[in-house]
């Protein structure tokens, strides 16, 4: 009885290692191809499709990301206030919202929203190209699919995700203003002054570093799921689901890692 | 086996030697040997699952065999460096079964794509060349359309135009007549013959459509369960007594292709007459 269990364990481990290996190879190839996606020095048509992706991944996502951030900021303020009010420390709600959104909720919510919107779209687009043999056609024409399809998504994501993160962080912080106005009659100007006092450049930067990592995860998992599609149209649907599930999971996993690193290298030492 | 790309003369355009391919321990191609001469039209025949599509994918360098060699214009596709592979691929034009045109681009841009990617020609030259390729397949006035707006037959022609974009000397078709009505399929056969006459290309066609195969083939190769069971001219294959070839040509379902035929074949085989 032990052999099948060990065998299955081994197979499953091999499967995951192969997946991670695939991601690593794809990442390496993508870095090589990124240069050719840049304007002026790169290929003209790549740059054009990169701009299109920037609109699709970034601009179109903003309303949804913005509303999510406003809600999250408001929720954080309410949850914090319900406890802090008992201690008579309502002004700390502002710190809670500012720090919580800048360090954590802004980058994470943005990444989850983009993974749901664009990660699935990437894998569905590439998956259907695999099914219709377009990817094969590309390779027979001597065109590298990673350069032609993935790079014009990766570069825009690297630019757009930090931008979205800043916007959503702003939205989240601003949502605390009306809450404080309603619950403690604090003027918006006063609220903003408190925000400025509690915001730290380091928090903003760590949020942006995270968003770069999240962008990498979302694009690469989404595209790899697409490239790995085998079979018919049903496989495309499955790959879109897998892209969202895996990229969300990895985003949260990476978030834990980054937060731990930032905590150990700075946050913990500060008073 | 590192002859230059331009190796011409009497050497075959494509030479497949002892190619073995297996997926998950199952042998899909079992020691295939096949030479395709320059300027010849070779039709690869075989039922579903016979391995003919796998062989095609090996020839165009999409997959690599576990063992054996595939020499295309003298370069071993099974082992060469990625750079050489890219170079050889430019001498092979492939028209895929479902045409595989990029739906995000116009027909014109589809055909211009290989030129834009691999050459430094001026945009006006590329436009002219694109128009010429489209004219060759009779689609000159449809370049501005999206591939979705084309009919099945037109899509296949557009795919042929794209395969011709870099002036390859080998043209490969995967199931050219699949999904087409007999008239359009015949037109496509005519186009393949015309291209061969005009450009003296080596043409490899994978199909299971017998009518089409007889129309275009110089020679045929028949695959059965991963092995090559016959290679020869149309007449040679037609007169073959091999039971699987007979079954395929006479359109007999598997169950009815009775054991008697097999017995008869082996009897003749043992008596030493040719298969």
Task: Characterize the structure shown.
The complex is a heterodimer of chains A (271) and B (275). Chain A is mainly α and 271 residues long. Chain A has helices spanning 2-34, 44-59, 62-84, 92-131, 134-140, 145-184, 188-198, 201-227, 233-267. In chain A, helix 4 (92-131) packs antiparallel against helix 9 (233-267). The longest helix of chain A is centred in the middle third of the chain and has 40 residues, at 92-131. Chain B is of the alpha/beta class and 275 residues long. Chain B is 38% helix and 23% strand. Chain B contains ten helices and ten strands. Chain B has helices spanning 52-59, 82-89, 107-118, 123-136, 152-164, 182-199, 210-216, 234-238, 243-249, 259-271; strands spanning 14-23, 26-36, 41-45, 67-72, 75-76, 92-95, 170-174, 202-207, 219-224, 227-233. In chain B, the strands form two sheets. Chain B has a six-stranded mixed sheet with strand order 6-7-8-3-9-10, sandwiched between helices. In chain B, helix 3 (107-118) packs across helix 4 and helix 4 (123-136) packs across helix 5 (152-164). Chain A binds chain B through residues 45, 129, 132-134, 136-137, 139-143, and chain B through 57, 60-62, 86-87, 89-90, 92, 94, 96-98, 100-103, 113-114, 116-118, 162, 166.
């Amino acid at each position: 009885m032990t052999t099948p269990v060990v065998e299955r364990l081994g197979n499953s481990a091999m499967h995951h290692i192969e997946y991670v290996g695939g991601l690593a190879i794809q990442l390496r190839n993508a870095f090589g191809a990124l240069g050719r996606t840049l304007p002026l020095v790169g290929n003209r048509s790549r740059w054009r499709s990169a701009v299109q992706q920037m609109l699709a991944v970034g601009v179109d996502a903003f309303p949804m990301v913005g509303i999510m951030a406003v809600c999250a900021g408001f929720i954080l303020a309410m949850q914090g206030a319900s406890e802090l009010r008992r201690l008579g420390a309502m002004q700390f709600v502002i710190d809670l919202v500012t720090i919580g959104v800048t360090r954590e909720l802004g980058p994470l919510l943005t990444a989850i929203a983009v993974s749901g919107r664009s990660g699935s779209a990437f894998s569905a687009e590439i998956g259907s190209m695999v099914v219709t043999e377009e990817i094969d056609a590309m390779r027979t024409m001597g065109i590298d699919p990673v350069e032609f399809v993935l790079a014009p998504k990766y570069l825009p994501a690297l630019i757009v995700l930090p931008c979205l993160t800043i916007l959503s962080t702003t939205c989240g912080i601003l949502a605390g203003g009306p809450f404080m106005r309603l619950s403690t009659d604090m003027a918006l100007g006063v609220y903003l002054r408190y925000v400025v006092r509690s915001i730290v450049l380091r928090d903003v930067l760590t949020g942006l570093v995270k968003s770069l990592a999240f962008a990498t995860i979302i694009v690469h998992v989404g595209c790899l799921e697409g490239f790995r599609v085998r079979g018919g149209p049903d496989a495309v649907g499955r790959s879109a689901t897998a892209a969202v599930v895996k990229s969300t999971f990895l985003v949260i996993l990476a978030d834990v890692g980054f937060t731990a690193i930032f905590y150990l290298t700075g946050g913990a030492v500060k008073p | 086996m590192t002859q230059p790309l331009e190796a011409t003369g009497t050497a075959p355009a494509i030479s497949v030697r002892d190619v073995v391919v297996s997926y998950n321990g199952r042998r899909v191609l079992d020691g295939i040997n096949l030479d395709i001469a320059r300027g010849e039209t070779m039709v690869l025949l075989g039922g579903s699952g016979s391995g003919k599509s796998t062989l095609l994918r090996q020839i165009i360098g999409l997959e690599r065999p576990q063992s054996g060699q595939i020499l295309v214009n003298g370069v071993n596709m099974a082992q060469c460096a990625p750079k050489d592979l890219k170079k050889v691929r430019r001498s092979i034009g492939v028209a895929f079964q479902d045409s595989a045109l990029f739906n995000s681009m116009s027909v014109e841009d589809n055909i211009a794509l290989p030129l834009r990617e691999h050459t430094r020609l001026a945009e006006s030259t590329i436009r002219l060349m694109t128009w010429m390729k489209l004219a060759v397949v009779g689609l000159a006035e449809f370049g501005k359309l999206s591939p979705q707006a084309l009919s099945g037959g037109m899509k296949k022609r557009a795919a042929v135009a794209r395969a011709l974009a870099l002036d390859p000397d080998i043209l490969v078709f995967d199931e050219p007549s699949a999904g087409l009505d007999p008239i359009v399929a015949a037109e496509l056969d005519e186009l393949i013959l015309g291209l061969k006459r005009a450009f003296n290309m080596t043409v490899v066609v994978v199909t299971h459509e017998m009518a089409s195969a007889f129309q275009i083939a110089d020679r045929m190769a028949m695959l059965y369960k991963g092995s090559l069971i016959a290679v020869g001219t149309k007449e040679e294959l037609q007169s073959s007594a091999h039971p699987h070839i007979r079954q395929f040509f006479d359109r007999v379902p598997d169950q009815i292709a009775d054991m008697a035929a097999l017995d008869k074949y082996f009897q003749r085989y043992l008596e030493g007459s040719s298969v």
